[in-house]
Write a structure and sequence with these properties.
Elements (H helix, E strand, L loop, with lengths): L6 E5 L4 H12 L3 E6 L2 H13 L3 E6 L5 H15 L4 E4 L15 H29 L2 E6 L12 H20 L5 E7 L28 H8 L6 H14 L3 E3 L2 H16 L12
Parallel strand pairs: 1-2, 1-4, 2-3, 4-5, 5-6, 6-7
Length: about 280
């Protein structure tokens, strides 16, 4: 897919992978609608891109609300007349509690943002792309959508759901000219571990503690990628029409470990960090 002059909508665009991908799309001479729930950070990010010559519009959106996602679609059409790329990227992290102790409110928050936020984007934007005969949808899942670990049951449930949704969507859109990619990053230097900063107040979740990315790298025996590296891979997957976007080789080994357990009928176990 040729991206020059095309229109992209990016959710979760105020920081992390979303912001890096918005920058990458601007570098590819695309027009970009940046959507996020954090209005001040969104405005600052968009102003910086405009100062660099980017054609950028912003829209404050809670992707858990289908009406707001529909309004985002309408805003993009009003601003630029079409949408060629949708990056369903907005997401929140887990709360690090056992699955059976996760409150109903936290379940709703994680699933509504991480899974239904993707579903609403697909619902509202796919008909536009099918009608115009071309386009591309990228859904952000996670390595956590391919293999599981303890203490993140709600997050895994949502991210496994995004992977399944994306696979089904790719099959449904075959032959329409609309492509699908599923992004499954491992550790990336983003604010995902600070997600509670945007949690609804009624959840009563504490402010997020500072994140020691170096400590996480040591614990997971991995490398926290610069979001710009991930953005490059998202760009290339759209251009090449690739479905899977993995960021770390270890993800494949962990999936192989999971699949071996399945094939051999063994109870799931978590491989050692950085190993399979």
């Amino acid at each position: 897919m040729e991206l020059t002059g095309k229109v992209a909508v990016v959710t979760g665009a105020a920081s992390g992978i979303g912001l890096a991908t918005a920058r990458r799309f601007v570098a590819a001479r695309m027009q970009v609608v940046m959507a996020d729930i954090e209005q001040p950070a969104l405005d600052a990010a968009a102003d910086a891109l405009r100062s660099a010559g980017g054609s950028v519009s912003v829209c404050s959106v809670d992707v858990a609300d289908v009406a707001q996602v529909a309004a985002l679609r309408d805003r993009a059409l009003a601003e630029f007349g079409a949408v060629h790329v949708l990056f369903n990227n907005a997401g929140v992290g887990g709360t690090g509690t056992p699955t059976w102790r996760t409150s109903p409110a936290v379940w709703e928050w994680v699933v509504n943002v991480d899974l239904l936020g993707v579903a609403w984007g697909v619902r509202e934007f796919t008909p536009l792309m099918v009608e115009q005969g071309h386009g591309h949808i990228v859904n952000t899942a996670s390595e956590a959508g391919l293999c599981a670990s303890p203490m993140l049951g709600a997050y895994h449930a949502a991210k496994y759901g995004v992977v399944g949704l994306s696979e089904a969507l790719a099959m449904e859109l075959a032959g329409t000219g609309v492509g699908v990619s599923c992004l499954c990053p491992e550790l990336v230097a983003t604010k995902i571990f600070e997600s509670t900063r945007n949690a609804p107040s009624h959840l009563g979740l504490p402010p997020p503690p500072p994140v020691d990315m170096a400590g996480l790298e040591a614990f997971m025996r991995t490398t926290a990628l610069d979001p710009a590296v991930v953005a490059d891979r998202v760009h290339d997957a759209i251009v090449d029409g690739s479905f899977w976007i993995l960021t770390h080789d270890v993800s494949r080994r962990r999936v192989e470990h999971r699949n071996r357990s399945l094939e051999e009928g063994r109870t799931p176990t978590m491989p050692k960090m950085g190993e399979a």
